[in-house]
Amino acid sequence: MESVFDYEDIQLVPAKCVVNSRSECDTSVTLGGYSFNLPVVPANMQTIIDEKVALYLAENNYFYIMHRFDPKTRLSFVNDMHARGLIASISVGVKEEEYSFIEQLADAHLTPEFITIDIAHGHSDSVINMIRFIKNQLPETFVIAGNVGTPEAVRELEHAGADATKVGIGPGKVCITKVKTGFGTGGWQLAALKWCAKAASKPIIADGGIRTHGDIAKSIRFGASMVMIGSLFAGHEESPGETVEQEGKRYKEYFGSASEFQKGEKKNVEGKKMYVEHKGSLEDTLTEMKQDLQSAISYAGGKELQAIRYVDYVVVKNSIFNGDKIY
Ligand SMILES: NC(=O)C1=CN([C@@H]2O[C@H](COP(=O)(O)OP(=O)(O)OC[C@H]3O[C@@H](n4cnc5c(N)ncnc54)[C@H](OP(=O)(O)O)[C@@H]3O)[C@@H](O)[C@H]2O)C=CC1
Ligand SMILES: Nc1nc2c(ncn2[C@@H]2O[C@H](COP(=O)(O)O)[C@@H](O)[C@H]2O)c(=O)[nH]1
């Protein structure tokens, strides 16, 4: 295998600017026939998104994926979003009851625009069977399948009918898969993304390991169409989850979907809980992300997101830190 690297080891090389203002740069992206403001989607985790956040994102033209940890509410969620003229984007697992849920949607003639099959080890027959089942029952739905970390997995899931694949096994901030199992793309997620993107014939969603806004541009450079982010979206005013105060400072909880807190039991735990500093409003973060990405497009010498795809890059181990502590 070629040598590997991660987000902090890469710098993108600037090209001549073609705009007079960064506001001319267009950060929008198309997925599944829909256009969204940013190539960014908050993680489908219980401390990142709930119905209110989903509604805010959909109404403001951001892509969203609702989590699957309150399964009984999913049907009415799809109904409600459609009643408001918004897209419905939900998650499913692969257990028996999820097949019944897909049948219920089909029987009710409810077709979510997006369904994400969300399990830890997505390169599996269980995911392949679920992709085929959804495509058979709800042929119009755009199916995102994951998570995977290899080109073989991307090809196999695409071949089974997935419309996009989600790449990232273990790079997440609250992930402990890498320490508990020894497996994953943690520490080399960007190289894994590059490797997977070369094999892909459909969009890829890079998932996990984003620590700065510049990492979004780097993900685009290495082949992502969309970037899923957890920790940077945790801790907002609107984020679900408990707020605690310590020494006059406010913090909010952020826990893994495979953590004991999510599962309610200590079985196959591959996630942990942490507290992140309170960050203010989600709107402010999304605005800042947009401005930073517009700036990235200008450094790429273009006016659109695609310009970032073609820039040169250098590998300089730990280059962005330069000995500075930036967070
Ligand atoms: N991106 C990442 O790196 C990771 C993400 N997660 C997140 O945690 C949540 C829970 O994930 P998950 O535990 O898969 O969901 P589920 O608990 O719904 O499990 C899905 C099914 O896959 C089986 N399964 C889970 N892991 C494996 C494995 N390694 N090998 C074979 N079968 C397996 C489970 O059976 P059984 O439990 O009996 O094995 C179950 O039948 C998801 O939201 C997922 O995205 C979790 C870990 C890593
Ligand atoms: N190994 C685990 N990964 C998890 C768990 N819960 C979520 N995740 C993944 O992390 C990303 C978010 O990463 P971040 O670096 O942006 O915080 C999320 O989208 C999942 O793919 C878990 O319990 N274990």
Brief overview, please?
It catalyses: IMP + NH4(+) + NADP(+) = GMP + NADPH + 2 H(+). The protein is an alpha/beta fold and 327 residues long.
Give a topology summary:
Elements: E1 10-12, E2 29-31, E3 34-36, E4 40-42, H1 51-59, H2 74-83, E5 89-92, H3 96-107, E6 114-118, H4 125-137, E7 142-148, H5 151-160, E8 164-167, H6 177-181, H7 189-199, E9 204-207, H8 214-221, E10 226-229, E11 243-246, E12 249-255, H9 260-263, E13 273-277, H10 282-299, H11 306-309, E14 313-315
Parallel strand pairs: 4-10, 5-6, 6-7, 7-8, 8-9, 9-10
Antiparallel strand pairs: 1-14, 2-3, 11-12, 12-13
The structure holds NADPH dihydro-nicotinamide-adenine-dinucleotide phosphate (NDP) and ligand LQESDW3C.
The site of NADPH dihydro-nicotinamide-adenine-dinucleotide phosphate has 20 residues, from loops.
Structural write-up:
With 327 residues, this protein is of the alpha/beta class. The protein has one domain (10-315): TIM Barrel. Helices cover 32% and strands 18% of the residues. It contains eleven helices and 14 strands. The chain has helices at 51-59, 74-83, 96-107, 125-137, 151-160, 177-181, 189-199, 214-221, 260-263, 282-299, 306-309; strands at 10-12, 29-31, 34-36, 40-42, 89-92, 114-118, 142-148, 164-167, 204-207, 226-229, 243-246, 249-255, 273-277, 313-315. The strands form four sheets. The chain has a seven-stranded parallel sheet with strand order 4-10-9-8-7-6-5. The chain has a three-stranded antiparallel sheet with strand order 11-12-13, with no helix packed on it. α3 (96-107) links the parallel β5 (89-92) and β6 (114-118). The longest helix has 18 residues, at 282-299. The two termini are 32 Å apart. The mean pLDDT is 96. Residues 43, 45, 147, 168, 170, 172-175, 177, 207-210, 228-231, 256-259, 270-271 line the site of the ligand Nc1nc2c(ncn2[C@@H]2O[C@H](COP(=O)(O)O)[C@@H](O)[C@H]2O)c(=O)[nH]1. Its EC number is 1.7.1.7. It comes from Lentibacillus halodurans.
